[in-house]
Amino acid sequence: MVDDCIFCRIADLRIPTELLYQDHQLVAFRDIQPVAPVHILIVPKKHIPDVLHLTNTDADILGKVYEVAAELARCEGVAEDGFRVVVNTGPAAGQSVQHIHFHLLGGRELGWPPG
Ligand code: AMP
Fold this sequence. Notes:
Low-confidence stretches: none
Bound molecules: adenosine monophosphate
Strand order of the largest sheet: 1-2-3-5-4
Radius of gyration: 14 Å
CATH class: Alpha Beta
């Protein structure tokens, strides 16, 4: 738990947020500035700043992230048409919160390559 980290504070329930999913490892909630009809953030409770800080001890968290992403995609009705799970890492990718998070995007055509 990092006190001045907004996603640590959400995961710790210090900032009231409607959670779509929570367990001992993860929370999921809607992005405050959605860029697609379905835009959910899946956030490990552990403060990992970004992909560069992942280690093999985080493998079970990553497995759970994708299990939850698939389940939320089904619940949100985008599993069949298709969806994307995105992790921005570093300034060139536009990472704005330094606590690893997985964007689940769906509900519209998602361009490729991404901008
Ligand atoms: P990134 O730019 O990849 O670091 O993504 C950070 C995301 O967090 C952005 O899409 C923001 O809109 C979103 N965000 C920031 N603060 C909040 C918040 N309090 N609740 C929900 N989403 C947030």
